[in-house]
Every structure is written in structure tokens, then in C-alpha cells.
Design brief:
The complex is a heterodimer of chains A (243) and B (203). Chain A contains 3 helices and 11 strands; from the N terminus they run βββββαββαβββαβ. Chain A is α/β, with parallel strands linked by helices. Chain B is 8% helix and 31% strand. Classes of the chains: A alpha/beta (243), B mainly beta (203).
Chain lengths: 243, 203
């Protein structure tokens, strides 16, 4: 983060547009992926997010940001947002309980130009729970571009039932760490993420993308520093309880 | 107003009523932590705060020196661009006016670029940090400001979205021209007035 800001602003599409829900998939008991066809499709970068806005009949609105899980190359003007159902979540609750294919939502984006990866530099991706979502966009991009050599993903989840994108994870470049309950045959006993899980330590050219709850991020950042990652090579996205 | 979303009636309306800017909800007792960098652990013994750029007297204060200035506090609401607002919070520290009284801005200074010990930056019109509207704070609800919320000291500009209230603040540079900071380069608004919903560039 000591890098100076880039001189030019990356393209950000700021207007609201309609998006049609074309598919809804259950990722886990508390997470669904919504595939949206955008009215005005545009480019985005892996790691960026979109804002979803809901409008009540009286004009009241509620909006929340959700990271894109699909890869930029997954074309057709469609994006996938994975949404975790939060307790009392006004927007996540609506998306989970009401939305079905054919519904129209308002979205705005892409947003964010810092937590992004373009498949041209080495990257270590570290995610906790739902924090895997923007990292999945990066992993999928790497696989589509056949640049798995540039990337390594470590994702920490409580149990196999909490793993998003289970049919695409793990892989040679993607490691899943279970903190409470491991699947049968897993040699690593369940336990919190450790420094060893992050080895081999990335070199100085590698950017580390760290995403998860505030608690996970702080704990993982300490481990990354322990294995020798300079703090300024870590980019962070904290997933807050934002409904 | 956009057309209604099928089956959405909203349950976020709170008694907070007109204290919430458009599109915001009351986060209650929660205080979400959002930042783009690893939380730094800064030692107050080596901490400094500097006002420089277009000023008559560029000035640096140590932790003890800034605490010796006239205290000032803010009680009210804060609003994050990610749509949460937190009502009735109290911060204490020093008014930015007090710091500028010492450094004396030159007439051509119209903007500030706040910077942090982590390298984070954010830009503001000078008029948004003068006249009792901005503070450097180190105390939250009577206790030291926690590191994850910007401690030991952060900028506080509560009438703008909270990314303008730079965590781990290290100084202000006074400038003639507006110079986009970290999030502003990345698509966020140069001013960030929550009542005008100035979230992104172009709003």
C-alpha cells in the first residue's frame, strides 16, 4: 500500500442498470450464486464488485456490494455474484428468499480498482469462508488463460459443508484448509490456518490478496508476515456484516 | 426513483428516520472494519503528524505535542459508503482548525491530501476540513481508538463518507489543485457527501 496511486483512473461504470437473473445456484446452505445478464455489459477486472440495489414500492431503497465470482473472460455480458445469507440481512435475505430466474435487479459497477488481478503477475490468494468469492474470479481467470503457474489459492473454511465452489476446488494451485471438521481422507487435522499452510513463502514479486472477515484478515496477515511477506505486498478486502 | 423490485418491501426503515442519509442503514452497536491494508501497529512514541504543502509554517507534532493542544470532540453520526451508518458516536482529539492555525495555509491552498502511515491517501476540499468540521482523533467513547479503527489516531470528517476519515493518519498536505487519493483514483467520489449520495466518480 506504499505504492503510489496509479496516475489514471481505471474504468468504472457508475450508472445504474438493469440486470436479469438467469440462474440461481446454491453453493452451501447459506450461500447462493446469482448469474446476472447485464443490460449494458462492460469489462471488469477479477476482484471487482457490483452494487445491487433493491427498491420498495414506496421508493425506499437498500443496496449492498457483492464481489464478482465469475471470471472476466466468462463472456456473454453475464456476471455471477455469490451472496452469503446474513442473519437479519435485509438485502441478502431478499436475494436468498425471493429472487428467482427471470427477476430483474438494479446493479451498478464494476467498482474497485485496488483488489484486482489481471493474470499477468504472480499472486498468492488467501481467503476465509465467503472471502473466497473475489479470489475465485481470479482463479477462474487464471485457469481460462492457462496461467495457473502465476497463482496459488489457500482457502480456509470451517467444514466441507461450508466450502463454496466445491466442485472446482481444490486443485494443484488451490488448497483447502479446514478449521473445525475435515473431510474423510484429509491428512491435515482440522485447525485454524497456520503459517505452514501458506508455504512456500511467496517471493517479493508476488502480490498477496487477502479476503475474509476482519478477524480472519488480521490473523492471516500476521501469519503472512511471519513467513516473510512484506506488509506492503498484501492487498486486503474485508467482508463486513453489511446485510 | 427506480422501478420497484418484485417482492421487496424493505425492512431497514428505522426510527432513526431522517438522520440516515439516502441508501444508508443503521448498523446499531456494530462497527464494521473496512480497509484495504493490513492493520499497522504504530507506536505512539515514534508517532508524528505533519501539516505541510502550501502553508506558511510546515509543522510536525509528536504524540505528546499534539496532546498539548486545545482538546476538541465530536458527538454525532458517521456514514460509510458501504451503506452502514453509526449513530451517536463520540470521538475526541484536536480540531484540524487548531492545527491549521499553527501551520497557516497560504491563500492559494484550496485542497488537502490526507496521508496515512500506511501510504493511504484521500483528498478533500480545504473548506471541508475547516470551520469545526474535521478532527484528528485518538479517543473513541472515552477509550484509546483501537488500531483496527485507525488508532492511535485517525482523521475524522464526519459530514463526508467515512473513507475520507483516513485511518492511521500521518499528515495533511495543502494543495492548490485537487489530487485524487487512494479510493478516489479507484473510482470513488472526490468529495463524498452522503446526503448527496456522492459515492462514485460521476455521482
Amino acid at each position: 500500500m506504499t505504492e503510489p496511486p496509479r496516475p489514471s483512473r481505471p474504468p468504472t461504470q457508475t450508472g445504474w442498470q438493469a440486470a436479469t437473473v438467469v440462474d440461481v445456484r446454491q453453493e452451501t446452505a447459506s450461500a447462493k450464486t446469482f448469474r446476472l445478464a447485464l443490460e449494458r455489459p462492460g469489462p471488469f477486472r477479477a476482484g471487482q464488485h457490483y452494487v445491487v440495489r433493491l427498491t420498495a414500492p414506496d421508493g425506499y431503497t437498500a443496496s449492498r456490494s457483492y464481489s464478482v465470482a465469475s471470471a472476466p473472460d466468462d463472456g456473454g455480458g453475464e456476471i455471477e455474484l455469490t451472496v452469503e445469507l446474513l442473519e437479519d440481512g435485509e438485502v441478502s435475505g431478499y436475494l436468498h428468499e425471493v429472487v428467482e430466474p427471470g427477476d430483474r435487479l438494479e446493479v451498478r459497477g464494476p467498482v474497485g480498482g485496488w483488489f484486482t488481478w489481471d493474470a499477468d503477475t504472480p499472486a498468492l490468494l488467501v481467503g476465509g469462508g465467503s472471502g473466497v468469492v473475489p479470489l475465485m474470479s481470479m482463479l477462474r481467470l487464471a485457469r481460462m488463460r492457462r496461467r495457473e503457474d502465476l497463482i496459488r489459492l489457500v482457502v480456509s473454511v470451517r467444514s466441507p459443508a461450508d466450502l463454496y465452489y466445491a466442485d472446482e476446488l481444490p486443485g494443484p494451485e488451490a488448497r483447502v484448509v479446514y478449521s473445525r471438521e475435515a473431510p474423510p481422507g484429509e491428512s491435515r487435522p482440522p485447525g485454524r490456518l497456520t503459517a505452514e499452510d501458506l508455504l512456500p513463502a511467496p517471493d517479493r514479486r508476488t502480490t498477496t490478496y487477502l479476503c475474509g472477515s476482519a478477524g480472519f484478515v488480521e490473523a492471516a496477515a500476521r501469519l503472512l508476515v511471519e513467513v516473510g511477506v512484506p506488509v506492503e505486498r498484501i492487498r486486503v478486502e474485508r467482508f463486513g456484516p453489511s446485510g | 426513483m427506480g422501478r420497484p423490485t418484485r417482492g421487496f418491501f424493505g425492512r431497514g426503515r428505522r426510527p432513526a428516520g431522517d438522520r440516515l442519509p439516502p441508501g444508508q442503514y443503521d448498523t446499531g452497536a456494530d462497527w464494521p472494519v473496512l480497509s484495504a491494508e493490513v492493520t499497522p501497529r504504530l507506536d505512539t512514541a515514534g508517532w508524528t503528524f505533519t501539516v505541510d504543502g502550501l502553508v506558511e509554517r510546515p509543522t510536525t507534532w509528536t504524540w505528546d505535542e499534539i496532546h498539548a493542544l486545545a482538546p476538541s470532540s465530536y458527538s454525532g453520526d458517521i456514514h460509510c459508503v458501504t451503506t452502514w451508518s453509526k449513530l451517536d458516536v463520540t470521538f475526541a482529539g484536536v480540531s484540524v482548525d487548531t492545527l491549521l492555525d499553527v501551520a497557516r495555509p497560504l491563500p492559494e491552498a484550496h485542497f488537502v491530501l490526507a496521508r496515512s502511515h500506511t501510504g493511504y491517501t484521500t483528498n478533500l476540499p480545504l473548506a471541508d476540513v475547516t470551520g469545526g468540521k474535521a478532527w484528528v482523533v485518538w479517543d473513541y467513547e472515552g477509550r484509546p481508538l483501537p488500531a483496527e479503527h485507525g488508532g492511535p489516531a485517525r482523521l475524522l470528517v464526519p459530514h463526508l463518507y467515512f473513507w475520507k476519515s483516513a485511518k492511521w493518519v500521518s499528515g495533511l498536505a495543502l494543495l492548490a489543485e485537487d489530487t485524487p487519493g487512494f479510493w478516489e483514483v479507484n473510482g470513488y467520489h472526490d468529495r463524498g457527501d452522503p446526503w448527496l449520495e456522492q459515492r462514485y466518480q460521476g455521482d
